[in-house]
Design goal:
With 339 residues, this protein is α/β, with parallel strands linked by helices. Helices cover 38% and strands 15% of the residues. The protein has a six-stranded mixed sheet with strand order 5-4-1-6-7-10, sandwiched between helices. The C terminus is likely disordered.
Amino acid sequence: MVALFVTIAVVIIVLGAEALHLRRVNRLAALAFGYGRKPALWARISPALRVIASGALVWGMLTLLTIESKSHSSFEMMGDRDRHIILLLDVSPSMRLVDAGAESEKESRMTRARELLQSLFDRVAIQQYKISVIAFYSKAIPVVEETRDLEVVNNILNDLPMHFAFESGKTDLFAGLNEAAELSRSWSPDSTILLIMSDGDTVPATGMPKMPQAISSSLVIGVGDPLTGTFIDGGNSRQDVSMLRQVAARLGGEFHNGNDKMVSTQLIRQLTSDTERTRWEDLTQREYALIAIAFGATVLSLLPLLLHYFGTSWHPGVRNVTTQLPETRGARVVTGARR
């Protein structure tokens, strides 16, 4: 507030000085600018530039002097808006089947899910997100909410037998979606990425819940062999690509078959683009003060030189002109005075 009041006072003083200077320039306009008595067109805005630059310079310097100094950590959130990742993790017994992996297919589906998520997190500024994990099988249970500790998430993915916490039954992906919608309902719009990791086994065809505005983008990642099934619980279990692709389409997101390859960098950029803030959104008062100082100092230092060399096209003085006299026969040129 002090910086604003002082800036206003400086602007008023500079305005008065510019008005006085303009009166003096008008008196000597013919000497300074020739018979037209006007400077170059661009130079006519120089008084306004000096007023704005002076105010910007004073405000920037006083702001840097008065704001509280702050140390920044790479693990701090940039800006005031929180960013979230909600991970819906299928922990049904079918996720422990060993038929995953692009080449060997000797990994369990849960191990493949951990590798996919680790690869994704390595290419995202994960320290800027709060991560929530919701496990689902016959129902959905929030395992961790809004943590920044990636090791907690890694421990959940590290073959933790969470299916024992559920009653046996069919996999209910939509229960996880309902839990994610309830968790993110009060969050800022377009602040949350929804990740779904599942083999798609026994996902219902109807009953898709409506997601809140906080969900900006979603990615459904399928694991497990999509072609050859594995016998479990009296049935043949495989990655249901068509069902998972349908879920992704109804969520307005993307589907990725994680059994073949890792998530592409292009897809990750597309996934995070809605939650990423622009550089201008991340500027704080300190950055604006530095910009104001740079602008004010640049204008006040360069303006006198520009006015001197380019302020007018009229240049006073006597031009050096050579006059050639006409030739006259029989004429005698008298160079001296008559005596």
